[in-house]
Amino acid sequence: MKTLAKNPIYLRILAFVVLLAVVAAIFQSLTPAYLSSNNIHALLRHMAVQGLAALGLTFVIVVRQFDLSFPGVASLGAMTLGWLIASNFGVGAGIAGAVAVGLACGLVNGIAVSYLRLPDIVATIATGGLAIGLSYFYSNGTSISKNFFKSGILDLNDAKYFGLDAPVAILALTAAIAALILHGSRFGRAFYATGENRVSAVYSGIRVKAYVLAAFAICGALSCLAITLLVASSGAANVTAGSQLLMPAYAAVYLGAALFGAASVPATIAGTLLMSAMLNGFTLMAVPYFYSDAIVSTVLIVAIAAFDPKVSAALKRLRPARSPKALASTSLREVRS
Amino acid sequence: MSAVLSSTASRPPRGGFDARRFLVRYGLFFLLVALVVAFSWMRPSFASAANINDILRTASISAIMFLGLTWIIAAGEIDVSFMSVAALGTMIVAGLIQTGAGWPLASAVAVFFGLVFGCLNGLLVAVMRLPALVITIATGGLAGSIAAAIGKGTSIPFNSVGFVGIVLNANVDIVPVLAILVIALYGLALVLQDRTTFGHYIYAMEQNREAVVEAGVPASRLLFLLYGLSGVLSAVAGVFLAADLSSGQPYIGASYFIDGLTAVLLGGMALKMGKPNVIGTLVGVLLLASLLSGAALLGWTDSQRQIVRAALLITGVALVVWTRRKTRAQL
């Protein structure tokens, strides 16, 4: 574990690039359309939706909590967006409404977990269930697509900002802000401190409850922003929209954390890119949609297992015994480090 | 290490009558009675023999599915793959029946795959000590995906319900035979839980796993056993579910997910003040089955019932946490 953690960062980046290249090479050899510019655009758009949800989750994982409510919250956000657009409130109000709903749900989660001290897993499962139940009230569970074409929500998927597809630009901007908060400010250190050791964070003068609350609020808001992009690309809002976010988001965060040693914004983006590269490849090869969960979950299990310090330590014990001299030198090295 | 409810030392018993403790400990029983009385008063057909028979049968299937989960949560870990394993069970049965296999073979294969997934969870969570929530999300996703793949994304209907159907539909007066079997199973589980060291170790693990290991208890093996049990029982419930619905349903898991956690955690309130236990789970399952049937008779929509259920879950958890609060660290 020590040696892994001490690896300089560029080795990890190199490992990531090699992994990505291997994935790309395999799919390119199987389906020649994989690296075409059209497909790369599609891949990055798909990544934008997953990436935004995973970015929000990153904050929650950094403070060592779990959020299982964001798929339900995202569904509620999607239906709010759909209802606002169908009622002629315009795209701006729709997106603002959806994100506000996400923020509100996130705040409810955060208050329940940090101030009321409810257990995170159960509390977020319950609030997620509540959110799904509420999302049925807009239209009794039917999908909403009225006024979508007229209102211009679909342009969100097709527009270009700074030469990038709009969803990709939104992801890049959000990731930059998130990275600034998490890695370039004292707020970020406080998030990490809260997660690493809550007691010592409290004694260092960090308001841990406020940071846990903030993490859940960010997660709720970003999951709704993610679903806005999904609604914009699919052209309809429905109550099951959020359910496809849960596993890819966890997979992206954990895969990234496994690759880079800890959950962080660049790690999550890298994890999302890898997941999207794989899923897009399988879609291109016409693998039916119901296998995608199996692929995501297998990758998730392998990522967690392969990079777990306890497992690599166990694997080391399985290696054949080395000569005493080599053993002595390694133990010396371990002592020095 | 507890994934669901953080461990707390129980408060020392005090003299006198503590109304709040009494309410938490026996509240669930009163709630069940109140709900049954209220539903029977509003819709007399709720108390008809056929409806009671129906409620007991649905509750029995859920009770089988949630027994393993009860102990896993009691041991301070979590399993969110149980419902997908049950869904996989229904699809394996349906898929094999469709290709002409008999019920004995089909159910045996389904239960075997339940065991495989239980052992996979056990290996990853108990032996390799990986994070339980994320791992079981992933194994649940895998099971669900295989279930969907068996039917190419849709359900598989079939006609014969075989010997499982005979067991399922047999009645003694108005009580289904399945309910009697479940009561026997839970009776056995109660003895295991409260009268054997096995049961004591489960609760001890939630309090302090390191201490349990230091005391010489093979905690990993115990937890492995619990995950294996959960997998097998979920698959068994899946087999009964397939016979009950005369089809394999790849997406049936979702409806059991919140139900399972609600039954176990609400049930945990009963008797043991927040520690999941088999009697509590049984009461919780009955409560949810009554709610399902009563809500259907009153004409509630699915989303209204979902909201009631989620509210029930969060209220129950809040009650548990707040009654145990005095001993919690104030962070």
From TrEMBL, chain A:
Superkingdom in the source lineage: Bacteria
Segments crossing the lipid bilayer: 9-30, 42-63, 95-116, 121-139, 159-182, 210-232, 252-274, 286-307
Keywords, alphabetical: Cell membrane, Membrane, Transmembrane, Transmembrane helix
Keyword Transmembrane helix among UniProt keywords: yes
Record's bilayer topology term: Multi-pass membrane protein
Record-linked InterPro entries: ABC_transp_permease
Record's subcellular location: Cell membrane
Main localization category: membrane
Matching CDD domains: TM_PBP1_transp_AraH_like (cd06579)
PANTHER family documented for this protein: ABC TRANSPORTER PERMEASE PROTEIN YPHD-RELATED-RELATED, RIBOSE IMPORT PERMEASE PROTEIN RBSC
Protein name per UniProt: ABC transporter permease
Automatic annotation (TrEMBL), chain B:
Highest taxon in the source lineage: Bacteria
Main location group: membrane
CDD domains hit by this protein: TM_PBP1_transp_AraH_like (cd06579)
Assigned keywords, A-Z: Cell membrane, Membrane, Transmembrane, Transmembrane helix
Subcellular location: Cell membrane
Transmembrane segments: 23-43, 55-73, 80-97, 103-125, 132-154, 174-192, 222-243, 249-271, 278-300, 306-323
Stated name of the protein: ABC transporter permease
Species of origin: Kaistia terrae
